Amino acid sequence: MALPCLLALSACTTVDLSVRHEAHPPAPTTPPSAPATAATAPSSAASSAATTASESKKPGGYYLDDGPAEKIPEGLLELPDPEPRIEPYARGPSKPYAIFDKTYVPITDERPFVQRGRGSWYGKKFHGQRTASGEIYDMFKMTAAHPTLPIPSYARVTNLRNGKQVIVRINDRGPFHSERIIDLSYTAALKLGYVQSGSAELEVERLLADEIARIQGEKRRREPLARESVATSDDPIARLAAGSAPPVAAERHGIFLQFGAYAQLQNAQAMRERLLSGWPPGLPLPSVVQSAGLYRLHSGPFVSREQAAAAAQQVKAAAQISTTIVQRQGIGE
Q1: CA angle 182, 183, 188 (to 5 degrees)
Q2: What's the CA gap between 5 and 127, in Å, rounded?
Q3: Among candidates 184, 129, 172, 131, which has minimal Cα distance to 148?
Q4: Model confidence pLDDT, tens digit, residues 7-42
Q5: With contact defined as beta carbons under 8 Å apart, do 206 and 149 qualify?
Q6: Residue 282: is its pLDDT beyond 50?
Q7: Nearest 5°: phi and psi at 217?
Q8: Could you give the residue ranges of the DSSP H alpha helices within the chain?
Q9: Are strands 182-185 and 114-122 parallel, antiparallel or unpaired?
Q10: pTM
């Protein structure tokens, strides 16, 4: 569950979508004579909203001291965009929620989505805090917050003024400012060229499954030598990161951890990706096994149920994912 945080004036924040929190008092507004960037300077309407929120004890408050970090890593402009992939939606951030008396209904299907409007970015105030997805916000990665796009999902964002484009991973909720449609990470805004101005006119286009498959196919065609090198690697995680889906394994005899049974192969593979991102070292890597018309995600075999139970505890501690212990009799069971 996301930790309680504050709503930024023109940027987003992490939001606990299941619990309403008392408002925090708003920070002092910037004096008229003091310089302020577009990322931090309030409009009169927003200042009024902040005061109202504080007085009425609604969720959130406004801080005006967000911005870039004191120390910026080198090479951020060369940071590659995330490679889009199909991922299972997080359950909590997929539920409808209300902020400032407005109800938001997150998208949970494969509908196309294109939106134009003003976009901003958020930085040091929320760096290191939990996002709505439960992940830690890193302002130096290529991520974004959106009120309704699925979490996680991917979007192509275009700066309509200069034509620059990036792909970002949606892993947070916000912004909740009436004049903003999306909040990008510092690095994504830097690559689009609007860090200094604080906001820009953007186009946000959700990447659907067919577009993700096309992007992955283009990458495979552009990098045949790199893919050949990865294909000969003994590291299954490296092969997965390069876009090569793991094969469906033959069913084997023994005691296994089972992480679900899926009607669609891509769903089993998506769950496998999620597991690998936090997989404990030393345990048998999960594999997809086809049995009785379903794609089952297994790890093993283990020599005993006691050993499997100990492995299950390791996985739960590392990835916060529960599992069941099953005993397979092999093909023809």
Answers
A1: 115
A2: 12
A3: 172
A4: 443 445 444 443 322 222 233 333 332 233 333 332
A5: yes
A6: yes
A7: -65, -40
A8: 44-56, 186-192, 209-222, 224-231, 236-241, 265-276, 305-319
A9: parallel
A10: 0.54
